[in-house]
UniProtKB/TrEMBL annotation:
All residue ranges annotated as the AMP-dependent synthetase/ligase domain in the record: 18-392
One Pfam family matching this protein: AMP-binding
Keywords associated with the record: Fatty acid metabolism, Ligase, Lipid metabolism
Catalytic activity from the UniProt record: a long-chain fatty acid + ATP + CoA = a long-chain fatty acyl-CoA + AMP + diphosphate
UniProt protein name: AMP-binding protein
Length: 559
């Protein structure tokens, strides 16, 4: 069991670094035009103290909720510390949210103010911010927001820093993290300073991290994984955080940071792989990797080009990692550790152990975590000191989230092997029954389906159909012209045959439906962490399932 000490709480860690390493550079922020702004611990603490003074001066009651609406940047982290120092509770918002979702979260959380930062699409987002809400603009915020609201730099320049070391108790509410909503309305998950501290310590024991480590922060800080691994990991260890400037500069940002720790979602690991194979065909790469001396040179060159040549621990999570993808990365010299968790347990539940090949599982339970399987449903249930306090303003949903004896319902089916490693076999709610009365768990089929390089993302559906079908969102280049379309159709027929050959008869896909319209966060088909919103896909395409099946073709092109 990892013990929680007062010194491990977020603000105490800030004060520790402010005292012991004030001049160490720990944040590197791109500010445009190839320029970088560096922050030391002393600068982070000074700006947090000044903004905390300003927040206290607004007269909000203690424990007020304060929003943070921005892409990842240095000021995101500093504002979180300032909110806590001022005695309040932070409410992160995903920087891709539509106006209605922004308003829903700000209203539901009863937020009293909001920090506004780097954002795309601000013109359509601004109506989600209440007109009378006090807001502060980070540097790099949209120009229209800068003209509307108070400036971070101006406040820091004109406000004295808060003195002393404000303490927050372990049992105090620290943050309300709204889930990304794969199944409907987002829920506000409440976590305390104690649960955050426990998660940071447990994660550090799971994957040792040090002051000398470097990370690139680019997955949304509004998501629990980035919040725990990056923000809380930063406070716990003092490691150096680099920020990505934009999607267009991501490759440059990654090479600049040369992270020693790198975590990503499966889709990005697939894109990295596709980028490598676009420059070197798989057959040639396989041949070169088998040559002892040449293979080492090739591996070093590939990882160097990706900016991952100094990465000592690579991680994946937020969705299952296909086994074939894990095996490919191990072959090029970058084994990926797969983690499993959820917002309700601060993403600390299970993780494969660095240095051990536990591919195909999510590893053993983390230290301090208990896990069991419900014999009636096959559901993996867990408990730990990192469990949420509950859902904000929703005691009924909170009760439903736990068993009578205090175990968290994960909603995932799981099984454990003789070595104590757990395998997630699917979502209980994602299972569907075909017209033949057979249940299909789609996750393992989707893992195989998405491995084709032309596929951006996919979903297996088919409740009440004779057989399931596969819905595929293609890369834009996959159907650029008629010749490409004919080639793609032949490839997909072969891909479908390969997949069906490995499935039980009731799981075999009737057809693949190739969709030209991409699934994105913006059009509501993906969550901000790039997981498919099954309900949205079913609602959009469900009425056409029978029509597509009746065409009698293995591959169907559709809009």
């Amino acid at each position: 069991m990892v013990e929680i000490s007062g010194e491990s709480l977020a603000l105490q860690r800030l004060y520790h670094w402010e005292r012991t390493a004030p001049q160490r550079v720990i944040l590197t922020q791109p500010v445009g035009g190839g320029q970088l702004q560096h922050f030391t611990w002393a600068q982070v603490a000074d700006q947090a103290r000044r903004m905390a003074t300003w927040l206290q001066g607004q007269g909000f009651e203690p424990g007020s909720r304060i929003g943070i609406f921005s892409k990842n940047c240095a000021w995101w982290l500093i504002s979180d510390l300032a909110i806590w120092m001022a005695g309040h509770v932070s409410v992160p918002l995903y920087p891709t949210l539509a106006a209605d979702s922004i308003r829903l979260i700000l209203d539901h959380s009863e937020a009293r103010a909001c920090f506004i930062g780097k954002l795309d699409g601000w013109t359509s987002m601004v109506r989600g911010i209440p007109e009378d809400m006090p807001c502060v603009c980070f540097p790099l915020a949209p120009a229209d927001a800068v003209n509307r609201y108070e400036s971070w730099d101006a406040i820091c320049a004109g406000t004295l820093p808060m003195q002393g070391e404000v303490q927050r108790r372990a049992d105090e509410l620290a943050t309300v993290i709204y889930t990304s909503g794969t199944t409907g309305r987002p829920k506000g998950v409440m976590h305390s300073f104690g649960t955050l501290a426990w998660a940071a310590q447990a994660g550090k024991k799971q994957v040792p991290r040090f002051e000398t480590d470097r990370v690139l922060s680019y997955l949304p800080l509004a998501h629990v994984a980035e919040r725990v691994l990056v923000e809380q990991g930063w406070l716990a260890t003092g490691m150096h955080i680099y920020f990505a400037e934009s999607l267009e500069t991501f490759a440059v940002d990654l090479v600049r940071a040369r992270p020693t720790l790198f975590f990503s979602v499966p889709r990005l690991w697939v894109k990295f792989q596709q980028g490598v194979l676009a420059r070197m065909p798989a057959e040639r790469l396989d041949l070169l990797l088998r040559i002892p001396l040449v293979g080492g040179v090739v591996r070093k060159k590939i990882l160097g080009a990706l900016g991952l040549d100094q990465c000592r621990v690579a991680g994946g999570g937020a969705a299952p990692m296909p086994l074939a993808l894990l095996q490919w990365y191990r072959r090029i010299g970058l084994p990926i550790n797969e983690a499993y968790g959820m917002t309700e347990n601060l993403a600390v539940s299970h993780c494969t152990v660095p240095g051990k090949n536990q591919e195909g599982t999510v590893g053993p339970a983390s230290e301090g975590v208990e896990a069991r399987v419900d014999p009636a449903t096959g559901e993996l249930q867990m408990r730990s000191p990192g469990l949420m306090l509950g859902y904000y303003k929703d005691p009924e949903l909170t009760r439903e989230a736990f068993t009578e004896d205090g175990w968290l319902h994960t909603g995932d089916k799981g099984e454990v092997d003789a070595q104590g490693c757990w395998r997630i076999t699917g979502r209980i709610k994602d299972q569907f029954k075909t017209g033949k009365g057979k249940y299909v768990a789609p996750a393992h089929i989707e893992d195989r389906l998405c491995m084709h390089p032309a596929i951006e993302t996919c979903m297996v559906a088919g409740a009440n159909l004779s057989q399931p079908l596969g819905l595929v969102s293609l890369l834009p280049t996959a159907h650029a012209n008629e010749a490409a379309r004919q080639q793609l159709e032949a490839q997909m027929r072969g891909h479908l045959d390969d997949i069906n050959a490995r499935l039980d008869p009731h799981e075999q896909l009737d057809c693949l439906v190739l969709l030209k319209i991409p699934w994105t966060v913006e059009n509501g088909f993906l969550t901000p962490t790039l997981k498919v919103k099954r309900a949205s896909v079913e609602e959009a395409y469900g009425p056409r399932f029978e029509e597509w099946v009746q065409q009698g073709s293995k591959v169907v092109f559709a809009d």
